[in-house]
Specification:
The chain is α/β, with parallel strands linked by helices. 41% of the residues lie in helices and 18% in strands. α2 crosses α5.
Amino acid sequence: MNSPKELLTTTQKALTVNLDALKYGTFAEIGAGQEVAREFFHAGGASGTIAKTISAYDMTFSDAIYGKAPRYVSCERLKLMLDHEFQLLIDRLASVRGERTAFFVFADTVSTSNFKGTNEAHGWLGYKFQAAPHDEPSEIVLHVRMWDKEAVLQQQALGVVGVNLIYGALYYRADLPRLIDSLRDNLEPARIEIDMLRFSGPSFKDVDNRLMSLHLLQSELTNAVMFDRAGDVLQPSEVLHKKAILVERGSFRPPTLVNVDMIECAKAMFIKEEQLQGRELVVLMELTMNNLLSDGALDAEDFLSRVDLLGDIGYTVLISNYPEYYRLTSYFRRYTKEMIGVAMGVNNVQEVFDEKYYSNLEGGILEAFGRMFRNSVKLYVYPMWLSEYESYRVRSGAPEVSREFKDAAAGALVDAGNISLHGNVADLYEHICKRRLVTSVVGFNPEVLHIYSRDVLRKIRNSDPTWESLVPAVVADGIKRRGLFGCGKPQG
């Protein structure tokens, strides 16, 4: 094993694997060519490692070998390839060399840029392997994007990532953060992005893939990762592809009745938009890394608690490196041209219109808003301040809180005159409102406006039982059952 500071070249890594007499297997590559297998052939000694290489490039041949999948560049297709080729190794070679061989299959299905440059350059890579002879196999699956402009450079980058994956799985699997960091060895950071990574099998039985995904973010291998309601890792492009998107950003520490009321009220309005008729909708709860690191260091237990609880109440979770909203909506535009809705409180509107957040842009706030509001983006603003709401009720002379009053108050609180914006920024906000790119949330529950996550967290830690009435019942049950956020623990 090499020292942590020593960086092997791609050829050195491939040669090290080739000289490991225990490892023997198949390379199956579809789409871009046989870039990974080529690295092992070039390194020398490949006859000790490679049982077979195959590139079933023609779709008819590929279907005949592996069976059909919804898409050729997909996780489903990769899984068919890994399983089929691994079973062939066992069937044909186990009786011959199974006592002295740990078999493996590397597979990828990839799309590089075509001659028109119109298609997405991305792919799925997988490594299925035995840690020792006769062991049950383990798997590593990842999704990669290649950002080079030329197909030949994309292919070269894919070959490097494939070698890094195989080498890391064999020699770094006792240190998975190191394995993840090594995936970009010998590549400039801007050349690739790895936005999904999943470990499975006996070699990784104690691995939480959510934490591994979080390490992708920390290592800047990607800018966003996604989890489904059960906490399983998702590949964002497969979830967001050609879908309308509604997102709410928050701390969710813990998720409260306000969080749920905000997204559900916004959703009720969003689905009535004319542009959404007949379109599929994805609803996301999003946290930023800034939020997760608000206390200065990442608390893995705290992170998992938030993801678990949001899943308990039925939401898909996105974790991003995008503190600015315009960067978040630009990220969504990678995958869809459909309408994007952003649910936020009045306090978040003030942050969005604060020019200090855009000092790094040459065009300042105007450039940011040009990116943020292009192609059908709309803000759904929720009245977060109970005091402002009550003040409006008193000023209006309303004797009681009717449904009509609630909706009128919501609209009034979102008016430029009721948000502390000044000068040109106030004019910009008024212009955006007139274009109907910002709208007030109606139908909200004023009885929950006093709830703040930080207050609920304090009550939990102080063993104040009133916190349970401030969160959804399933969240309260999850917090108590799992002892989250210090619930049931003595405070020292």
